[in-house]
Design a protein that fits this description.
By secondary structure, the protein is of the alpha/beta class. The chain contains 17 helices and 13 strands. The strands form two sheets. It has a seven-stranded mixed beta sheet with strand order 3-4-5-6-2-1-7. Strands 9-10-8-11-12-13 form a six-stranded mixed beta sheet, sandwiched between helices. β11 (307-313), α12 (320-329) and β12 (334-339) form a beta-alpha-beta unit. The longest helix has 23 residues, at 163-185. The model is unreliable at 250-262 and 389-394 (pLDDT under 50).
């Protein structure tokens, strides 16, 4: 949204979640040229309280015509440019729940504000130079973080730790482009270009671009999490494994095969990675129609999972039924879990290893009923993740899909420049690909941006952001 479209508009929105009978505080936020004037018509602060920036006032929100009290609240003033949007910002801190904040918001709209679009507060912060595009995306990542590590990575983006190296790489490319174009325009007045030195600088930029690109899978993993399905025959201890892992009684456990009729989910965090664990119904030929549906959902869960924990009963050894089910899931990344090992002598468990398939990423013995082997299982999962290079870079940043696409274009353009240099092509060809790399890097931070790109980024925000 171009700055001219909104510069005379004041926006308002509820900035906190509203849930009936829950939440002690609800915030209505306004930003824009008329925010303070609207607040002064709605908010009555007793005594000699001073309306000045970064001061909290106590009082009542009243209807401007009837003077009926809507809520007892606090009012925070943050005047331009010392605010999130670099505009005048006012926040009504009301009682939580639904009615108070909705009534206050409605009064703001009736007094001339309009309802903010999703992400419009952050969009204004970006357009007014308060934040760049990577910081804006860091905000939404922080709000949606599902683990401490995801939150720290989002915070790093919010603090500019991604934007800073990208800007440095872009500045290097701009410097090289300036040298190249100077030779094109003033070839007779300048010394020849040191092609080897330029090539070395471009290769250094390319190496850094590739290093940042390696964080893309890690970023996706932190944002979306890992989906893990526990799969196996009935009564091998899948539900016990889920309960031991989640330290809860999420799944019903009995000695009767077929107890689990549907997929049971649990949300965990393993090594900073959000993990959605799916305890599936035991896969077998079932006569019961309900169990048949559960078995089919189990097969679907196994095929959609990022990682399968194929679980067998140590007492029963490796059975024909195990092999039949295993053949259905062995094409997925999987770890073989030997459960109930506490019921067998150690030498029998060791002997069982010789009869197992050779394709699992790991084989982990567990005794779920006694909470044994869970730490080993978690480490095996983390090892599997690292083996797939989902955390290839030891960095505190992690790029998203949009940033990865732009970096990939920059990488290809830089590789083309290197090819152009190697083939001794004219300098005009160098400048074309250099400009492409510069534009792609600028798209990441927002220095090169289109309205459609802004719509794509900020439409994912909640309205109050």
């Amino acid at each position: 949204m171009p700055k001219a479209i909104y510069q005379n508009e004041t926006i308002a929105a509820i900035a906190t979640a509203i849930v009936p009978e829950q939440g002690s505080v609800g915030i209505v936020r306004m930003s824009g040229i008329a925010a303070v004037a609207i607040a002064q018509r709605l908010f009555h602060a007793p005594g000699q309280q001073v309306w000045e920036s970064h001061r909290i006032l106590y009082g009542q929100v009243r209807h401007p015509k009837s003077q009926a009290v809507i809520d007892e609240a606090l009012l925070m003033l943050m005047l331009s440019p010392r605010s999130y949007t670099r505009e005048d910002v006012v926040e009504f801190q009301c009682h939580g729940g639904i009615m108070a904040v909705q009534q206050v918001l409605q009064l703001c709209l009736e007094e001339g504000a309009r309802l903010a679009q999703p992400g419009e507060f952050s969009l204004r912060a970006f357009l007014n130079g308060r934040i760049d595009l990577t910081q804006a995306e860091g905000i939404t990542d922080l709000v949606g973080a599902r683990s401490p590590q995801a939150a720290q990575t989002a915070l790093a983006g919010l603090q500019g730790k991604l934007a800073q190296p990208i800007r440095q790489l872009r500045a290097t490319c701009l410097d090289i482009l300036a040298e190249v174009e100077a030779r094109i325009d003033f070839e007779d007045d300048l010394p020849p270009l040191d092609e080897a030195e330029v090539s070395d600088r471009l290769m250094a930029v390319l190496v850094d671009v590739e290093a940042i690109l390696q964080t893309a899978d890690r970023g996706e993993l932190l944002r979306t999490g890992l989906k893990v399905a526990i799969v196996g025959r009935p009564n091998v201890g899948k539900s016990s494994l889920l309960n031991a892992w989640s330290r809860s009684d999420r799944a019903i456990v009995t000695d009767l095969p077929g107890t689990t009729r549907d997929v049971v989910e649990s949300q965990l965090v393993v090594g900073g990675i959000p993990v959605q664990v799916l305890d599936t119904a035991g896969i077998r030929d079932a006569a019961d129609q309900v169990e048949k549906i559960g078995v089919e959902r189990s097969r679907q869960a196994a095929q959609s999972a990022d990682l399968v924990l194929f679980t067998i009963d140590a007492q029963a050894q490796w059975t024909n039924d195990d092999q039949i089910i295993y053949d259905q899931v062995c094409d997925r990344p999987h770890i073989l879990v030997i459960n109930k090992t506490d019921l067998l002598p150690a030498e029998q468990v060791s002997h069982l290893h010789h009869h197992l398939p050779s394709t699992p990423l790991a084989v982990v013995p567990t005794a779920a009923a006694k909470q044994q082997g869970i730490d080993t299982l978690e480490q095996a999962i983390l090892d599997a993740v690292q083996a797939k290079h989902l955390q290839a870079a030891n960095l505190d940043i992690a790029i998203n899909q949009r940033q990865a696409a732009a970096l990939t274009r920059a990488k290809l353009a830089l590789q083309q420049v290197h090819t152009t240099i190697t083939q001794q092509l004219p300098l005009d060809f160098w400048s074309i690909d250099l400009r492409s790399a510069i534009q792609a890097l600028g798209e990441i931070t927002g220095e090169e941006v289109t309205e459609s790109m802004l719509d794509l980024v900020f439409s994912r925000f909640c309205i109050g952001k």
